[in-house]
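Hi F.,

I've been meaning to write this up properly since the lab meeting, where we talked about keeping a consistent format for the predictions we share between groups. The idea is simple: the sequence comes first, exactly as it goes in, then the structure tokens exactly as they come out, then a line or two of notes. No screenshots and no reformatting. I'm using this chain as the first example so we have something concrete to point to.
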Amino acid sequence: MAFSARLIAGISSSTFALSYACATDITPEEKRAQRFGMVGAAFRGGFVLGPVIGGFLSEFGERVPF
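Output, unedited:
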């Protein structure tokens, strides 16, 4: 169980590096800092809103969020 949890955590943490690499590739250098801020804000917003939305959806049934 701990191994599978660690595996999922490792896979999901790699999305940070991939997102920043994609932002670097497609953004002009003068707007790169702005885009990095947007990517970071999107991740942090997801961390904040994800549990809230999941909690709301669980009111309709335990399996609804999944």
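Notes:
Residues 32-58 form the longest helix (27 residues).
The chain is about 80% helix and 0% strand.

If this format works for you, I'll send the rest the same way.

G.
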